[in-house]
């Protein structure tokens, strides 16, 4: 009782948040998710269609590279496809939040899912990025040669598809932050 | 007014959360951060001291590998050191939350920082993991040979240090979730 009294007194002095504030946050959240779909989907498609066959060959071997040869790139495609689907699936929830800005349980659920998806997407994107880096620069102590001189188009496509994926990461970080802010504003508004 | 009335009616039917609930969450949060320090610090030390020199050499070359040869491993050490420092720095805040379980602004701050650090640590850990995978398995299309046959101890140490780092990732995900739950419980308790 004592504690509740202190709480009320402390927060009454604060400026009340306007009723529409959380609606604005939810609209931004929806836009971020749409951008996230574009980023992750284009990343998955760009990497998933990425292959290059070299114009010369020996009697036995035709040199070619495709994303499927690298586990990290395969992971990258799968993770980005999952994330694009996840963004699509959470859009209805985001719309519900615009209409019912007092929703709380579903906001927590969304923060939890966003956090897990953030870890997943970051893992996929940076695993692919480290391979792209190796392909560009090679490594002398293990004698891994840079292959981008041969597979130029392949490397360029792989590098480009990273951009969409890192865009998706930024979108997820922002949606988590917005969700936390919306949750805390609810607490304030109720007072 | 109408909406506020509906809110109060809707939430009054819920079981009230006991006053000590958020204190329990904060104590768990503190323990998770201590585990996080142990994980990321041991990962940074294990990888940072990781080097192996092969027992044979030619007239010109002594074969050796150390973490510093790989950009991804260097990133891994730096990121894990940053995360260990971050966990240490947030412990006072976590203790404040145990004592003042009504704190809200600092909880949001902590969720935001945790989220950014989660992205950072996941990036470092999975970039290193993809190199460890390559070292174990090689890649035929780029002619990168598996080097773990030569550098066995080096590979084992690198693989082991990933464990601590992924432990830190799990701790961060849990602290974000606990923070969100604590925030939403505050809203409920105030009602």
TrEMBL record, chains A, B:
GO terms for biological process: cell wall modification; cell-cell junction assembly. Its main location: membrane. It holds the Pfam family CASP_dom. Residues 23-170 form the Casparian strip membrane protein domain. InterPro entries: CASP/CASPL, CASP_dom, CASPL. The chain crosses the membrane at residues 30-49, 73-96, 108-135, 162-183. Coiled coil: none annotated. Keywords: Cell membrane, Membrane, Transmembrane, Transmembrane helix. It is found in: Cell membrane. It comes from the Eukaryota. GO terms for cellular component: plasma membrane. It is a multi-pass membrane protein. Homodimer and heterodimers. Belongs to the Casparian strip membrane proteins (CASP) family. NCBIfam families: A_tha_TIGR01569. PANTHER family: CASP-LIKE PROTEIN, CASP-LIKE PROTEIN 1U1. This is CASP-like protein. It comes from Helianthus annuus. The lineage of its organism: Eukaryota, Viridiplantae, Streptophyta, Embryophyta, Tracheophyta.
């Amino acid at each position: 009782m004592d504690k509740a009294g202190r709480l009320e007194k402390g927060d009454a002095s604060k400026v009340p948040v306007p009723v529409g504030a959380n609606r604005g946050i939810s609209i931004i959240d929806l836009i971020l998710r749409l951008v996230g779909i574009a980023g992750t989907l284009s990343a998955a498609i760009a990497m998933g269609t990425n292959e290059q066959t070299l114009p010369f060959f020996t009697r036995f071997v035709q040199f070619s590279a495709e994303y499927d040869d690298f586990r990290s790139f395969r992971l990258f495609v799968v993770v980005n496809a999952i994330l694009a689907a996840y963004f699509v699936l959470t859009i209805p929830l985001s719309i519900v939040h615009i209409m019912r800005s007092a929703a709380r349980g579903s906001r927590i659920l969304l923060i939890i899912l966003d956090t897990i998806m953030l870890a997943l997407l970051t893992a996929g994107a940076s695993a692919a990025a480290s391979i792209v880096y190796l392909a560009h620069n090679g490594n002398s102590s293990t004698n891994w040669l840079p292959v981008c001189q041969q597979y130029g188009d392949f490397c360029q496509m792989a590098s480009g598809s990273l951009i969409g994926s890192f865009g998706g990461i930024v979108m997820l970080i922002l949606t988590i932050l917005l969700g936390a802010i919306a949750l805390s504003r609810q607490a304030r508004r109720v007072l």
